[in-house]
Amino acid sequence: MNIHRAFAITKRIFRGLRHDRRTVALMFLAPIVAMCVFGLAFSGDVKDVNVVVVNLDDAPVSASGVIISNFDKEVLKVAYVASVEEGVRRVEDGKAYAVIIFPEHFTESLLMKRQNPSYEGDTTIQVREDRSNVNVANAITKSISETILKTAQEAGQDLPMKVDAEDAIYGKGAKFMDFFVPGIMAFVVFMLTTLLTLISFVGERTSGNLERLQSTPLRESELVVGYAIAFSIIGMLQTVVLLVIGTVAFDIMIVGNVVLAFAIIALLAVVSLSLGILLSSLAKREAQAIQFFPLIVLPTFLLAGIFWPVEAIPQWLRPLSYLIPPSYAVDATRSVMLRGWGIGEIWVDIVALCGFAAAFLTVAILSLKRGRR
Amino acid sequence: MQSFAVEMKGLSKKFGSFTALNNLNLNIEKGTVHGLLGPNGAGKTTAIKILCGLLKPSGGEGYVLGKKVPDRSVLPEIGYMPQETALYLDLTVHGNMALYGDLFGLSRSRIAERERELLDFVALQKWKDSLVSNLSGGMKHRVSLACSMIHEPKLLFLDEPTVGVDPELRAAFWEYFDLLKKKGVTIVLTTHYMDEAQHCDRIALLRQGQLLAEGTPVDVVKSAGATNLEEAFLMLAKREDAKS
């Protein structure tokens, strides 16, 4: 291993990028766009849902009125109609997602029930939803339940039990963005590094450059290490950009050691580029290489724990998520940034990533050597 | 002293069921320009790739500068110009040359020096800082040739060095090859321009992976009873077909 020859390759990559503004733009704009689009769109909260209320309650000072005024106005946009039929028609016409019906004598029944639990009056708030959009419907049900709980508390009708989740051990006050940024960092670096090395190595092969390189004293291992140095640096620069924007625009939480997060991402970049190189040996042209894109992007997107935890994946699918290198990087960067963990706690992830790196690098180098049949 | 730069002893190469090279025996003397001639698919490129260590022979042996190939220790001594352009299009002419200078361990000042000499030779001095992607096909070809010589190799393998090069420059190339030869450099090149082969010290006619004839261009023409190389090739090919 001659490090000068490896550096010559690194230098070549950076020199090439200097004249390839489009690729540089992709490297740095794609992460930013991904973070903003996903981060803002995926924040997970359903808002501004049109619902109609039919209030048949006739009390002058009504409990139904208090409940309605307690609705979370961010989630529910309330309109009133006079009859159940009209309310149902609104939903049927797609103008609202639910009709919320307060029965006749609601307030009275409520008061009677308080004194005599066996009183038979109707105190059921009927919610007839358009469940064709499950997310929206669930948000409506949840919002109404919360409102009722809140209203009961205000009326001194507190439950004898209570849950308090305010005093978190890790990630106190964390928002979706705080959870999301470590994930998107790993995702973007993994995806772009794999795809760029894949395309670039198919190019090395088809252009004849690889053969010319192999006719010089350059060893395959030096070639791969040269690439690894370049792409680790690029991966870390992408991380810097994401963290700066995350901090400035989204005020994300970083409690741990940022340098350790960088190191994890650099390690992931090495894993990714070796994967790119070995996939390149399976493609004869750039057009064939493009067919690998969904194969790389989709499993990572769905199974690596970027948007939702591994626990949200069906049990039989979970082993797959442990076969995807970014899963470990997502877990490790998240633990470092949000829990403030150090190497002592995330060493399992590091070992897994090192294992992937070693295995992929070896196969990548062998795949290059196999060209000399 | 070893007088052959290249020896091929029964060299064969099969790709699956296709025989690219069939029992080739050929010696190339040091300090000569040796042409490998023949139509497409004759095995010229395969032979060169084996000698450069890019392919492993399926049978027989190849020796380069006294070492049995593939052998990494001869790589610093040889220069290889592939048939494809094999340049980085997103680098400048200088960027490409510097890469190969670095890979052969040349110092920065030595690279600059060699670059000046070689760009003078291929007449691309003023294009030094241009991106290769902006150059014409013939110019790329010249850059490619220059790249393969940056480290002053003792033995040069040039796969079709004169394709797409205009006649004036082609003449300059041959002059330069003569100059290198005088310095003791051995040049092995392929071409399918029969007229160009007159410049070679010796030529080998290849067809379907087999050697048809070998010798000085004049001898090859004479022994075939022909008036020029092209005719000689056609006559020899016909005779070979009649035999089998």
Number of domains of chain A: 2
Order of helices and strands of chain A: HHEHEHEHEHHHHHHHHHH
Question: How many β-strands of chain A, per DSSP?
Answer: 4
The largest pleated sheet of chain B is described as:
6 strands, mixed
Assembly of the depicted chains? heterodimer
Helix/strand/pairing category of chain A: mainly alpha
**Share of β-strand residues of chain B:** 25-35%
Helical content class of chain B: 25-40%
What is the number of beta strands of chain B?
10
Number of helices of chain B: 7
Class by alpha and beta content of chain B: alpha/beta
CATH topology of the domain at 4-81 and 152-243 in chain B: Rossmann fold
Low-confidence stretches of chain B: none
Radius of gyration of chain A: 28 Å
The amount of helix of chain A comes to: 55-70%
pLDDT averaged residue by residue of chain A: 89
Cα separation of the termini of chain B: 40 Å
Largest sheet, spatial ordering of strands of chain A = 2-1-3-4
SSE map:
The complex is a heterodimer of chains A (373) and B (244).
Chain A: H1 3-18, H2 21-41, E1 49-55, H3 63-70, E2 76-81, H4 84-92, E3 98-102, H5 106-115, E4 126-129, H6 134-154, H7 176-207, H8 209-214, H9 220-250, H10 258-280, H11 286-290, H12 293-303, H13 318-321, H14 325-339, H15 343-369
Parallel strand pairs in A: 1-2, 1-3
Antiparallel strand pairs in A: 3-4
Helix pairs in contact in A: 1-9, 2-7, 2-9, 3-6, 7-9, 7-10, 7-12, 7-14, 9-10, 10-14, 10-15, 14-15
Chain B: E1 4-15, E2 18-29, E3 33-37, H1 44-51, E4 59-64, E5 67-68, E6 78-81, H2 93-103, H3 108-121, H4 137-148, E7 155-159, H5 167-182, E8 186-191, E9 202-207, E10 210-215, H6 217-224, H7 229-243
